[in-house]
Known about the structure:
Strand content: under 5%
Helix content: over 70%
Distance between the termini: 98 Å
Largest sheet: none
Number of domains: 1
Order of helices and strands: HH
Amino acid sequence: MADTPNSAEIQKALEKQVADLRKEITRINKTISARSAEMMDDARDQASSFYENASARASKATQQLRTQAHAVSEVARENPGTTTAVLGVVGVMGFLLGLAVGQAASEPRRRWY
């Protein structure tokens, strides 16, 4: 019967295993925390880079639109008669397009059978 361990030895062995498992869990938690922090930093850097690029593009687009609007404004001031004629034609075309869409929407659907 000397080969069978007593309950005190079993309890010590179990306590040692529990302590080892706690150390392992602590180590794993630290590793996960470190990796999570790295991933958050990478995501923050990517988001910042994306924002900076989008901001630069928006600024360039705004400047281009401002330049083109100024050019159109100058042409309209220099040629008021032409501007009036073009706007009149566009207005008439829009009106006719609206009538066509209204007629197409109000007609009942005809089936081929």
